[in-house]
Every structure is written in structure tokens, then in C-alpha cells.
Write a structure and sequence with these properties.
The chain has 271 residues and is of the alpha/beta class. It folds into two domains: 13-150, serine acetyltransferase, domain 1 (Orthogonal Bundle), CATH 1.10.3130.10; 155-270, UDP N-Acetylglucosamine Acyltransferase, domain 1. It has helices at 3-13, 15-30, 35-43, 48-60, 67-80, 83-98, 106-111, 113-129, 133-147, 259-262, and strands at 149-151, 156-157, 162-163, 169-171, 176-177, 182-183, 188-190, 202-203, 208-209, 214-216, 220-221, 226-227, 232-233, 241-244, 249-253. A six-stranded mixed sheet has the order 3-6-9-12-14-15. Strands 1-4-7-10-13 form a five-stranded parallel sheet. Helix 6 runs antiparallel to helix 8 (113-129). The radius of gyration is 19 Å and the shape is globular. The termini are far apart.
Amino acid sequence: MSQLHAREATHSLDPVWSRIREEAAAMVADEPRLAGLVHASVLNRRTFEDALCYRLGQKLSSGEMTEGLVREILTEAHEADPVLGQMARTDAAAVLERDPACHRLIQPLMFFKGYQAVQAHRAARHLWLQGRVDMAYFFQMRTSEIFGVDIHPGAQIGQGIMIDHAHSIVIGETAIVGDNVSMLHSVTLGGTGKEDGDRHPKIGNGVLIGAGAAVLGNITVGHCSRIAAGSVVLSAVEPCKTVAGVPARVVGEAGCDQPAASMNHLLNAAS
């Protein structure tokens, strides 16, 4: 097979990976001093999953666990569960679509800690479900230390997730986050006491959560709702509503059918 046909086959089979490689080559041309990093992280990697595991290995390694060992554990997780790679691709596309600061697919992989933290969590959850609890906690610890994002490995997170800025995110053990959810920095999905058991929020699909919002307790936030910045949500939210305040109350409709995609946080957008 010629090089041209090989490139065309790669693009048709994995357009996300093909585009990232093209963007990586352009990045090297634009900023030659990043060439070593970009070649090691992308251009010398075989697949998208290989690049993701390499990059996370770079970030999560420490004196406690070498980069090679972290990468080996990540690679084993992706080989055992190919859905992890597909979800990572969907997340990258979501970031590109919703974050106005993101102009290339390579940016989340290389530079965005919200994206990287979610992918590290996915590996931690894989370990958790395999009964490797202590290793899962290690990944949670390193993700919190490096990215400032603390997600319990027991939490369930869907795909198409965009966490913008991603500083001081906390998601508890029994929380469930649906598909196509967007959230800003300093969001807490937490409990309300020291009770064990199912004690954290259940966030529906397409929900938009503003900066500094806290959703507390085993409550449901309905699909395609909006939570205004700084709100404290203590009771269930119906689908397609906007809530705001401390404690939060309904202030109107969501304003559109996909608030997580529109990323409109203005209260007057609600009808």
C-alpha cells in the first residue's frame, strides 16, 4: 500500500487520530522548540490510545510510580476496554465544539487538564470495577494532585464531557454524570453528611453546570437543565429548567433544547 493510500485508510478508520497527527505536524512547524514533546507524545505514537496513555503517563508519574509503569497500567485498561478510547474521542470532539478557547483537536490531548483529568478518571474507574481498589485510589490521588480535579473512581461519567478550566472540581463516589454534560470550574457534586451508601447527585444528559455550583445529596438533575453559577442545589431539578440561587430554585426554562452545547449561562436566556 502506498503512503498516500495508507494515510487515506487511517483517516477513514480514525479521523480523530488522523486530524490530531496533522495538527501535531503543524504545531512542530509553528513552534520548533516543542518538536521533542510533540514527536514523543503524538507523531511517534501508533494510535490515539497510545498517545493518550503516553501523555497521561507523563503527567501522572512521580517518584512513587514511574512514567513507564503508569503508562503500562493505562495501556492495559484501554486494551481491556476499547470503549475508553471511543469515549476519549467523543470528549475531545465535545471540547472542540463547546470551548471557544479550543481551536484544534490536539489541544485537549496536549494541554487541557479538564480533558486529561476525565480520561485519567476513566482508567481509575476501570481499575475500580476490576476490584483493583488501591490502584484506583492512587490514580484518583495523582489526578487530584496534578490537575486539581478530584473524582472518586466509583463515580460514573458519561461521554461527550466538557469541563472548562477544571480547577477544583469534586465529584463523589456515587455520583452519576450523563452524556454531553458541560461544567465549569469549582463545581461540586457532593454529599450532605457522613452517611454511607448512595449519597451523591445524578446529573442527566445535556446538563450545563455553571462555575462554583454545588449539587448536594442523592438528588436528580433532569436532562438538559441549567444550573447557574454559584448555585447550591439541594432538591431535585426537573428536565429543561434553569435553577439559580442559594438554595437554588427554578427561575425559568432552560432556554434551548441543548444548554450544555450552547454554553449560554445568562439567566435571561431562559424563556
